[in-house]
Amino acid sequence: MKRRCLLPVVWLSGVLLMISLAGCGPNYFLLHPLQPVPGIYRETEIFDRGQLRVYWLARYPDRKETLPAVLVHPDRGSFSEDMEGICLDLAKRGYFAVSAHYRRLEDLSNENPLIPWRSAEDVLSAYEHLRRHPRVDPGRIGLLGFSRGGIVSLQIAAEAPSVKAVVAYYALADFEEWLDVKRYAFPKSLLFKWVRARVIKETGEPTEEKAQIRFRETSPINFYRRIEAPVLLIHGEKDRTFPVQQMERLSQLMRGAGKKCELLVIPKAGHVFNFTDKEKGTLAWEKTLLFLHQYLSPSSGSSKDQGGLMQRRG
Fold this sequence. Notes:
With 314 residues, this protein is an alpha/beta fold. It is built from 10 helices and 8 strands. Strands 1-2-4-3-5-6-7-8 form an 8-stranded mixed sheet, sandwiched between helices.
């Protein structure tokens, strides 16, 4: 599987900007290569919920019993198909694993909008679809996300108390703080002035004041008290995109509020480290698997919502 190359305008951060200038982006299949696996289904679907279009790709084992499930959200620079290796890895371990990315129906030309979600219903669209899948045990669903995908995973958990576990890689806790241009010295302040203007535009809001409201609504630092599921935060010590200090603050606040929250800081690792450094990525992935198994292992007596679903297998 070839590595995905990124244009300089794909993401709004210094690290991915430098990656793009170098000519290529993260290798999403570094730890999770695609390979034929007997007994593993592949399912794809595109469906609409309101003004949101969801692109769905699932991998799961052929078993009679319902399966624990993991909903995977990619980072800003990637799509659901880039997470297929991760879904395949999880499927081999007995999970129903699905990745999802989104577009807005009013602007389908934007293949990867920064903030496609406009409401709680939007945020829950893929999760509710997953809960109704006939192969899934709705009482054993976890969330896994990378960068922006980590943020939306935390958002889903805040809206859905039935979520059993959340793993968020190198997420951001506070958009307002991160986008505060006054916090940065020249010339970094110039970069963040551009970043701030672009993020405001991508919110779809007509004014900066309304965009500021969106920043607050999408910042985990403002909704962590509503998260009931155990959370594992994974971050690189040398992350220059989303500072690890924000995750340290979020984990302290969650534990102080009586939440189950772990923070794993990977030494000398930067942003998207698990897609660029095999050794560091393996360390984080082993912890991810242990965490998911701890909270999604088989349990008896779970109820089932048998909602309909059009399935496509290949």
